[in-house]
Amino acid sequence: MDGTLVEFFRTAPIPPEVLSPSLGLIILLPLLGAFVCGVFGKWLGRANVHLVACSAIAGAFVLSLLAFWATSDAAGGRVVSMANPFGLDRDTIRYAIAHDYGTWFAAGDFRVNFGLLVDHLSGILLLIITGVGFLIHLYSTSYMEHDDGYWRFFAYLNLFVAAMLTLVMADNLVLLFVGWEGVGMASYLLIGFWYTDSAKAWAGRKAFVTNRIGDFAFLIATFLLILTVGAFNRQADARDYNAAGSSRARYEQGISQKGPVTFKGLEKLALALPQGSGGAVSLATPIESGPLSGYTFGGVMTATMLLFLLGAAGKSAQLPLYVWLPDAMAGPTPVSALIHAATMVTAGVYLFCRMSSLLVLSPTAMATIAIVGALTSLLAALIAFAQDDIKKVLAYSTVSQLGIMFMGVGMGVFWAAAMHLMTHAFFKACLFLGAGSVMHGNGDETDIKKLGGLWKEMKWTHATFLISTLAITGIFPIMSGFFSKDAIFHGVHHNHLHGLEWVSTFVYVLGLLITASTAFYMSRVYLLTFTGKRSPEAKLAHAHESAWHMTLPLVILAFLAFATFVYALPLMPRSGGGTQPVFENFLSPVLRPAEAVARAAETVKLDTSSPSVGDYAFAWMWALLGGGAAAFAYLKFFPSRVGQPVPAFARAVRRTALNKFYVDELYEFILIRPVKFVAFILFRVVDALVIDTVLVRGTAYVTEKVGLGLRRLQTGDAQAYAAIMALAILGGAVYALLQVLS
Amino acid sequence: MNIELVLFGVFAVMTLLSAGLVITARSPINSAMALVSTFFFLAGIYVLLWAHTVAVIQVLVYAGAIMVLFLFVIMLLNLGDAPHRGKPTVTRLLGGASAAGLLAVLAVTLGRMDAQPARLDAQGQATFGTLAAIGQSIFTTWLLPFEAVSLLLLVAMVGAVVVAKSRI
Amino acid sequence: MVPITYYLLLAAALFCMGMFGVLVRTNALVVFMCVELMLNAVNLTFLAFARMHGNGLGHVSAFFVIAVAAAEAAIGLAIVIAVFRSRGTVNVDDIRTMKH
């Protein structure tokens, strides 16, 4: 390759030190867009709102691109780097830019800064959020063209993007939580966008309440981390700090400047905790004082990570909190594509990648994450078998794919999980937008049984949907989805958690089943929707292809869904010899501390081999199996049996799957009913009896009686009042006289 | 028995008599006229206290301005001889009794007190209670209260107009 | 020399008479006059104490009291007129709106 071209790409157009103070603009632009659209949208008119909303995201995208470029800046061979506030002077953070806007709030020795950090991990997410976000905004201008709430819609959408950008750019947990809550709120607003339909409003509420459970766990985990940092600071000695590449003075200075919950500070904590350093503190050391006294650092870390898992399960729709995501499809389809497929639901995966160094301290938590992910994935895939609503299938598919990412995170293949996050953002957004296009062109029909034969009428939608289906299923292997999923399964198979070796095999076997299931239900959706003959039950006789606003994003996303497979190819040299995938190499500045911790703590044995051709072929076989079964069933088996009675067994299975294995009903029975019962008791005893009767009415009763008694004194006669006053004066005078006399 | 004590006795008795008339007269006109006489005798008492200036103001402002206002209102409302309706209620009588009681208490208290006028030097005698001395005090030390009072009068004027006029 | 005590006794008597009048008279105008009596009693006390201490401050106070009394009279009488206009009476027995 030409040397000057390489030099061009290595030189950021805007130098990092110039750009970093403007990082806040990336958040501010969508926020401003949300403000303008939300407050003035009604008066601005449709076209202006589109312009404002789209250009805000486009501006954020350009800034993100510049920021991303700046993180890779290596002009003149000097890699962009900055001093680590928690490390020694020689300790620099490479391939990252950051800016601290000062203290957000401080209480005692606790403080939180408004600090933004862009490294390769958050840079990738920035590009996905603003890039895919822009495409979806563009798509929405056409999709929402007949809706009166367009200005509300775009305000919410911009608000969501701003919150999501806060989430990924935050350099500490508390600021991340702000974004975390912000996306939750935007999601709630957008799911219930058509709030006049009570079912849709309920869906929004369900999402909000379910997320609340996860957020509660997230908060407790944050508090635990703060306590752990405090305990570590009290108990650690010089060798501990030394193992983390820091010193007590430097670490405490960092905490007093940046606060205890910054990711860089937590990374140092993780580096210091493994046994190998020989210091006073290790995973097995009990905490001496404070609320956590008696527990070991390792135990607290496991509890913290499990709580974070619950938090992430809420946001990323994993067991047991996944139930809100399928209902979230009540929102407009672009919302499903942006929030409930590409960005927000991956926040949990991002969180664990961001805190990978802490996560690898606890094999128990990792195994739990992997198993939860695998079970969620399989369950969602099975439910997707029988769903007839195209958006519901895609929703369960999203749950399933997120489960795969959690498997990757749980088994320590963070780079593959992040890569699957990226490829999933492309193909799933494309699938959702394709589904939206199908609905748009068929009178809002979502039942795939009532579609069919669309490949002739909706050429662009069909082509892009096909490419994305191939990408997610891996039936045609030269696709991004195949490679990123296989990278996860390969890592899952070869990484081993210390003391929990069986998890690898267990999860891997489940993974193969998931591959086949995914291929089956996605092929089913594709076949029923686009091939065959048009269903006689269709709402419209002829579908119409959507406008270019809608097809252009589809084409771009489909291209990306295809092209990003190159990142999984082992093209880059590995530092210890051999080659490694491009994406792993790319994320290594972020994930290196996690690898170091895993090595030192001996909690995870990380495998660095690349899949062989045989491995790929094996994975491909499973995908083909699923796809072939679907093709057989829906092209040959069912069409030939039309009109014949269905066996009772098959009916029962189908009904169970259709009813989502009765998980919602189970929750209703074991959770919601008891909670409602307790609430009812509380209402009767506390509200009705104590508060209403005793406190409220009792107070009123006493006041009333006293008032009735006193009313006799109130004659309205001013002179009577004056007479009483005179009596009082006399009393005072007599008292004073007696005091003087005695 | 000096002339000052005689004068005080005369003025004091006349003041109390007039005041008694104020509170007992049936007609408001009579009350008002008795009040004027009370003010005049009080002015005499003030003079005995070497408060010449205040005595003059008392005659000018009270007996002159305020009482004219009262008479004007009485005549405006044509209250000549309004029948004395209603009996004093228990509370009122109680109030009256407490007024008497208060007087008794005060009398007891004052009876135990032996207060004599200050003995002033020649310079003090020349300036005490003069317009110059009061003016000096008001326009230097007490300028702010003075201005506040002027503001109060202004507000009272506007307020009186607003309250009394049926249509503005 | 008349003892200051005499003046104070006179003021006390005047004040209590005024107070008595305020409490028992029903004509609002007379009530006002009695208030003026009480104010004058206070003025007398001020002046008596000024004489007792040889201090001109009492005179200044009396001056202010007179000014405030003037304002009070103006407002009070305006209220009497307004009440009379709306109710046709100045009898405080008939004016019991403070009950509500």
Automatic annotation (TrEMBL), chain A:
It comes from the Bacteria. Its main location: membrane. It is an enzyme of class 1 (oxidoreductase). Its EC number is 1.6.5.3. GO terms for molecular function: NADH dehydrogenase (ubiquinone) activity; NADH dehydrogenase activity. It is found in: Endomembrane system; Membrane. Gene3D superfamilies: 1.20.5.2700. It is a multi-pass membrane protein. InterPro entries: NADHpl_OxRdtase_5_subgr (IPR018393), ND/Mrp_TM (IPR001750), NU5C-like (IPR003945), Proton_antipo_N (IPR001516). One of its GO terms (cellular component) is endomembrane system. Keywords: Membrane, Oxidoreductase, Transmembrane, Transmembrane helix. Residues 104-154 form the NADH-Ubiquinone oxidoreductase (complex I) chain 5 N-terminal domain. NCBIfam families: NDH_I_L, PRK06590.1. This is NADH-quinone oxidoreductase subunit L. The lineage of its organism: Bacteria, Pseudomonadati, Myxococcota, Myxococcia, Myxococcales.
TrEMBL record, chain B:
GO terms for cellular component: plasma membrane. InterPro entries: NADH_UbQ/plastoQ_OxRdtase_su6, Nuo/plastoQ_OxRdtase_6_NuoJ. It catalyses: a quinone + NADH + 5 H(+)(in) = a quinol + NAD(+) + 4 H(+)(out). It is found in: Cell membrane. It is a multi-pass membrane protein. It comes from the Bacteria. One of its GO terms (molecular function) is quinone binding. It is an enzyme of class 7 (translocase). The chain crosses the membrane at residues 6-25, 32-51, 57-77, 89-110, 142-164. Keywords: Cell membrane, Membrane, NAD, Quinone, Transmembrane, Transmembrane helix. PANTHER family: NADH-UBIQUINONE OXIDOREDUCTASE CHAIN 6. NDH-1 shuttles electrons from NADH, via FMN and iron-sulfur (Fe-S) centers, to quinones in the respiratory chain. Couples the redox reaction to proton translocation (for every two electrons transferred, four hydrogen ions are translocated across the cytoplasmic membrane), and thus conserves the redox energy in a proton gradient. Belongs to the complex I subunit 6 family. This is NADH-quinone oxidoreductase subunit J.
TrEMBL record, chain C:
GO terms for biological process: ATP synthesis coupled electron transport. NDH-1 is composed of 14 different subunits. Subunits NuoA, H, J, K, L, M, N constitute the membrane sector of the complex. It comes from the Bacteria. Keywords: Cell membrane, Membrane, NAD, Oxidoreductase, Quinone, Translocase, Transmembrane, Transmembrane helix, Transport, Ubiquinone. The lineage of its organism: Bacteria, Pseudomonadati, Myxococcota, Myxococcia, Myxococcales. One of its GO terms (cellular component) is NADH dehydrogenase complex. It is found in: Cell membrane; Membrane. Its EC number is 7.1.1.-. Belongs to the complex I subunit 4L family. NDH-1 shuttles electrons from NADH, via FMN and iron-sulfur (Fe-S) centers, to quinones in the respiratory chain. The immediate electron acceptor for the enzyme in this species is believed to be ubiquinone. Couples the redox reaction to proton translocation (for every two electrons transferred, four hydrogen ions are translocated across the cytoplasmic membrane), and thus conserves the redox energy in a proton gradient. It comes from Corallococcus aberystwythensis. The keyword Metal-binding does not apply. GO terms for molecular function: NADH dehydrogenase (quinone) (non-electrogenic) activity; quinone binding. It is an enzyme of class 7 (translocase). It is a multi-pass membrane protein. The chain crosses the membrane at residues 6-24, 29-50, 62-84. The keyword Cell membrane applies. It catalyses: a quinone + NADH + 5 H(+)(in) = a quinol + NAD(+) + 4 H(+)(out). This is NADH-quinone oxidoreductase subunit K.
